[in-house]
Amino acid sequence: MKKCLHLGCGSRLFPSTTEKQWINLDLQPPSHHIPHNVTVVKGDFLKLTTLFPSETFAYIFSNHVLEHISTHDLVGLLYQMRMVLKDDGRIDVRVPNMLRILERYDEGCRQGDLDFPETVSVETRIFCTEQETRHRSVWTRNSARALLEMDGLFEVVHIRQEEHKEATMEIEMVPKPGGLV
Question: What is the set of domains in the chain, with CATH numbers?
Fold first, then answer.
């Protein structure tokens, strides 16, 4: 059975199956009834190696979490992720694409939509207003590759822009051979 980590799960919990044993990790996991086939761990994902032994997971998934981490903390998290990931493992992350968000905002401005009408996405309104969003890092295709391949821990093998979603990038990465000394 493949052991998988859902990093920063929030209230979206993945159940284990016969093929995958999911561990759902969050600092503030849901407190409602957890089904028997769902494993939830309360913990700080910036301290993964205190929660899990080295090479525990074959797969790590994170959905709209990394943008909430400062670049400084992200470097530490990448080391932690690499430590708990098997050498032949894979990581999939989803983050907002800032350039795509700004393009949508600019399109709206050109059409006179300066007050963020309902047709402008929530992501665009969050990034382009003075509200505190708790987003700590900005992601574009180039910054994603630079950040995630920093220090030679990972190789980004694919970056996909989800066309059906407003501005989400799907990023797949694998450990770089010899990247962890």
Answer: 2-97+134-175 (3.40.50.150)
